[in-house]
Design goal:
alpha+beta, Double-stranded beta-helix, four-stranded antiparallel β-sheet, five-stranded antiparallel β-sheet, 205 residues
Length: 205
């Protein structure tokens, strides 16, 4: 399989679901996309305090800002729940008036220190050197002084009203998202809770 061909869809819609792929294809995709900066086994732990490793649902968010792409490879999937939900943040952002768009660019969110040079905060909306709009968002990382900001509340309301793409990954499925554009969420992990995804963070080439 030539990894670059199917990846065209990723750049158009911001995410790509590739069912029934082997690990050789996974490695080709990782090489094509960028540099792997973190690998995590995402498995539920019923007593976990951390949201990611809990069985609870996760609301819409992005991961660490240094991850341009997130790739998940599914090894096991629970029999009930565990669906992945996706929203295009840029399409939501475009619905806001210009003053609200400008206001969101002033808001910084807390960010967990993962890498040595992290500043522990990052803007919700930023514009890169190529003029692309980038998003970093998790509602639980909004600083207290920003929670009542009218622009942020309007943005969050649009997120709640949006119709997400809903996927349930099956073993050997690959899911790729542009972490600077696509918000992802997860429904609660229920039933046998036997779920195992491997998550790759990739920086841009």
């Amino acid at each position: 399989m030539q990894a670059n061909a199917p990846l065209r869809g990723l750049y158009e819609q911001g995410f790509l679901h590739l069912p029934k792929q082997n690990e050789n294809t996974l490695q080709e995709i990782l090489t094509a996309l960028g540099e792997v900066i973190q690998i995590t086994d995402v498995t539920p732990k019923p007593d976990s305090r951390g949201l990611i490793t809990s069985t609870r649902g996760l609301d819409f968010h992005t991961d660490h800002h240094k991850a341009k792409f997130i790739v998940w490879y599914c090894y096991k999937q629970c029999n009930i729940g565990g669906e992945t939900l996706l929203l295009d943040a840029f399409e939501i952002y475009k619905k806001l008036c210009q003053p609200y768009q400008n206001e969101l660019q002033k808001i910084e969110l807390f960010e967990h220190k993962v890498f040595p040079d992290d500043y522990e905060k990052y803007p919700l909306v930023s514009i890169d050197s190529n003029g692309n709009t980038k998003f970093y968002y998790s509602f639980w990382l909004v600083r207290s002084q920003d929670k009542q900001n009218p622009a942020l509340r309007a943005f969050q309301q649009l997120i709640r009203e949006a119709e997400p793409v809903k996927l349930k990954l099956q073993p050997t499925d690959i899911l790729i998202v542009d972490n600077h554009r696509i918000f992802h969420a997860r429904t609660p992990i229920e039933g046998n809770q036997d779920r195992w995804l491997k998550r790759f963070w990739l920086s841009e080439k």
